[in-house]
Write a structure and sequence with these properties.
There is one protein chain. By secondary structure, the protein is α+β, with helices and mostly antiparallel strands. 32% of the residues lie in helices and 14% in strands. Strands 2-1-3 form a three-stranded antiparallel beta sheet. The radius of gyration is 14 Å and the shape is globular.
Amino acid sequence: MRINEWPLPYVRVKCSKCDREGRLSKAGLIERFGPDREMFVVREKLTEPSCKRPDKKQPCQSVLPDGLLVQAIIAKNDDEIIDKRLTAEAKK
């Protein structure tokens, strides 16, 4: 998914190794990386250089915590939603 396709006004990124978490505006990320940059590339560029993981030989374990919510938002029908608990929030 590209930044301009991300349906939320913000992007949260979290590292499961060092527990750092941040929330950035989608508009700011588009300005910084361009609208066509892939979200997973953006995620890596945001976290890898400053990750506080104990073992720098291991890769940063950053994730997009809202990934399943985004999947629910863009699903064409309820049957495609992976985490059904997010159905109501996705329809807001």
